Amino acid sequence: MDIYHAFCDLKPGVSDLAFHEQARAYLDHLKGAGLIAGWRLTRRKLGFGLPGLGEFHLMIEVKDLAQLEAAFAEVGSRREPVEGLHFGLNSLVRNPTFALYRDFPDPFRHHGEEKF
After folding, report:
1. Cβ-proximal residues to 23 (8 Å cutoff; 6+ apart), any chain
2. Which pLDDT tens digit goes with each residue over 59-68?
3. Cα–Cα distance for residue pair 70/93, rounded to 1 Å
4. 56-62 and 2-10 strand pairing
5. What angle in degrees, to the nearest 10, is found between the helix axes of 16-32 and 65-76?
6. How far apart are CA 19 and CA 93, in angstroms?
7. Helices 82-90 and 16-32 meet at what angle, rounded to 10?
8. Which residue of 8, 12, 51, 116 lies most exposed, with the fewest beta carbons within 10 A?
9. d(C-alpha 71, C-alpha 38), whole Å
10. Edge-to-edge, what's the strand order for the sheet holding 93-102?
11. Half-sphere exposure of 20 (CA within 13 A, CB side)
12. Residue 11: which residues within 8 A CB-CB, separation 6 or more?
């Protein structure tokens, strides 16, 4: 599983629940279309977190890079309804930072003794 991470803060005046609802609408749309495997939204707790990463952390799970590329292609098409959902979410955030991680070890990785 590959996990696309997005960290962000909300723009001034944006409700945290409005942000959640917009994220849910957008990501449930992508999941329903088979373009992502799942997602979750977390919020920094008690002020703990790395500086600069933002208060909110969105994790989007994809089965592989082909699925992620298909999701990017659909969003990049700028066709409705995905364009309005994507813009609606992006319009609520500031300071976004992105990362891509994978489960480790990879399922195809040889688990024998490493030789250097």
Report:
1. 39, 41, 58, 89
2. 999 999 999 9
3. 24
4. antiparallel
5. 110
6. 8
7. 150
8. 116
9. 12
10. 38-43, 56-62, 2-10, 93-102
11. 8
12. 91, 92, 93, 94
